[in-house]
Amino acid sequence: MWGSAITAYLHYLGFMLAFGALIVESQFLKKDFSLESAWKVVIADAVYGLSATMILITGIVRVVYFGKGTDYYLSNSVFYMKVSIFILVSLLSLYPTFSFLSWIKDLRNGKTPSLESAKVQRISWMIRGELFGFTLIPLLAVVMARGIGVF
Fold first, then answer.
1. Ramachandran angles phi, psi of 13, nearest 5°
2. Per-residue DSSP letter, 111
3. Within 13 A of 127's CA, how many CA atoms are on the CB side?
4. What is the tens place of the pLDDT at every residue in 113-142?
5. Membrane spanning segments where (predicted)?
6. What pTM value is reported for the model?
7. Is the pLDDT of residue 151 over 80?
8. C-beta separation of 14 from 51 below 8 A
9. CA angle, 48 as apex, 3 and 78 as ends, to 5°?
């Protein structure tokens, strides 16, 4: 019983941390920003990556060990939509993450990365897309838990 509760808690905590990290990224990502703001974006993205990994691992553990049984999930179309959105959000996060990682050398040398407006705009839209995806996943979880989508 404790294992199930702790796994569920870590799963939900992962969602909250991921969402919060994306909000921080969106708030501090600007064309002209300070060295401190750039570091906040890089650190928030690291938190995002760790929390997304936590969501994935705890999600798998919940399906295999603590949920309604693997057969239930694998025979539910909403489960596949939920997983597809998680994969899409993960893919959307790659471009921003690689961009932020490319800043680290300059940041360590005390240089703020210079960004083109178009790149800032592109990354900002991707972060918004990730946030939107993360708002849909809990909705699909609630729908799935009510037995909708079983074929």
1. -60, -40
2. P
3. 27
4. 888 999 999 999 999 999 999 999 999 999
5. 6-29, 41-65, 85-104, 125-148
6. 0.91
7. no
8. yes
9. 60
> Are 82 and 134 contacting, i.e. CB atoms less than 8 angstroms apart?
no
Q: What is the DSSP code (8-state) at residue 32?
A: S
**Please, is 122 exposed, middle or buried when counting C-beta atoms within 10 Å of its C-beta (0-12, 13-18, 19+)?**
middle
Rounded Cα gap, residues 20 and 61, in angstroms: 23
Cα separation, 54 vs 133, whole angstroms:
17
**Cα 9-10-14 angle, rounded to 5 deg:** 120
Burial letters 73-98, b for 16+ CB under 10 A, else e: beebebbebbbebbeebbebbeebbe
For 68, phi and psi rounded to 5 degrees?
-90, 10
CB 25 within 8 A of CB 44: yes
In whole angstroms, give the CA distance from residue 117 to residue 76.
Answer: 43
Say if residues 37 and 107 touch (Cβ distance below 8 Å): no
Q: Determine the 3-state secondary structure of 68 from DSSP.
A: coil
What is the domain partition of the chain in residue ranges?
Answer: 2-145
Running DSSP on this structure, what letter comes out for residue 149?
T
